[in-house]
């Protein structure tokens, strides 16, 4: 009856305003609105219901594919793992973690272009994804693009201020561009975080020698 439909509508709209976003809520609201003769409103809620249902099934598919991919990688089948991670990324575009895992698996297959594309996608989805920025910086460093590597390593230490490896890499790329004072500050930060780190101690020694020769 109309009175029940009006009451249901009020309760459901309140639930949605408080953050309820389950498919069923939109479905029930569509029914109430249709009873009240609001066909356009009912159709809008039905469209939201279908959208939420699709999001839920896409999410479930992505989780299932990613789980299978992790198992394949664990058993050493990185080719299968890469295929499954790609399917997971397709099911849930814009998932930074899935893109990052895909990058790590295709790296082991020697597909550097694929690794870079997946890392770019991960950073696009999450601009403060320090691990992806670190990996990208490392690729740029290896390719001899120091300016780009420096940018990525700076982003990495900003996102992960306690990551010793990122500070050492930043120091190394600064040193390779003869920014010795900044390199020294970065390596000092690494040693503050991990006083016994051998790579940081070696780099610190090399920087001191370089500064003495200036």
Kindly describe this structure.
By secondary structure, the chain is mostly helical. Helix 6 (112-125) packs antiparallel against helix 7. It is elongated. Helix content is 82%, strand content 0%.
Q: What structural keywords apply?
A:
214 residues, mainly alpha
What letter string, H or E per element, gives the SSE order?
Answer: HHHHHHHHHHH
| Strand percent estimate | under 5%
- Number of DSSP strands? 0
Structural shape: elongated
Q: Which stretches are poorly predicted, pLDDT < 50 over at least 5 residues? A: none
Helix content: over 70%
Q: Which structural class fits the helix and strand makeup?
A: mainly alpha
User: How far apart are the termini?
Assistant: 89 Å
Largest sheet: none
Q: Give the overall pLDDT as a whole number.
A: 94
Describe the structure concisely for a colleague.
The chain has helices spanning 2-17, 23-35, 39-74, 78-91, 96-108, 112-125, 130-142, 146-159, 164-176, 180-193, 198-212. With 214 residues, the protein is mostly helical.
How would you summarize the topology of this molecule?
Layout: H1 2-17, H2 23-35, H3 39-74, H4 78-91, H5 96-108, H6 112-125, H7 130-142, H8 146-159, H9 164-176, H10 180-193, H11 198-212
Helix pairs in contact: 1-2, 2-3, 3-4, 4-5, 5-6, 6-7, 7-8, 8-9, 9-10, 9-11, 10-11
């Amino acid at each position: 009856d109309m009175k029940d439909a009006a009451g249901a509508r009020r309760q459901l709209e309140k639930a949605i305003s408080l953050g309820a976003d389950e498919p069923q809520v939109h479905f029930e609201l569509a029914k109430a609105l249709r009873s009240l003769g609001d066909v356009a409103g009912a159709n809008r809620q039905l469209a939201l219901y279908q959208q939420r249902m699709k999001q839920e099934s896409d999410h479930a598919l992505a989780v299932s594919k990613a789980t299978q991919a992790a198992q394949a990688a664990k058993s050493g089948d990185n080719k299968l793992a890469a295929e499954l991670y790609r399917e997971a990324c397709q099911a849930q575009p814009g998932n930074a973690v899935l893109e990052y895992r895909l990058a790590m698996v295709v790296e082991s297959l020697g597909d550097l272009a694929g690794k870079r594309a997946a890392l770019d996608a991960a950073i696009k989805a999450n601009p403060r994804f320090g691990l992806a920025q670190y990996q990208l910086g490392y690729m740029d460093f290896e390719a001899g693009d120091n300016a780009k590597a420096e940018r990525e390593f700076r982003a990495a230490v900003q996102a992960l201020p306690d990551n010793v490896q990122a500070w050492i890499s930043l120091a190394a790329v600064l040193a390779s561009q003869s920014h010795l004072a900044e390199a020294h500050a970065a390596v000092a930060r690494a040693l503050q975080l991990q006083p016994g780190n051998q790579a940081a101690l070696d780099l610190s020694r090399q920087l001191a020698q370089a500064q003495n020769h200036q």
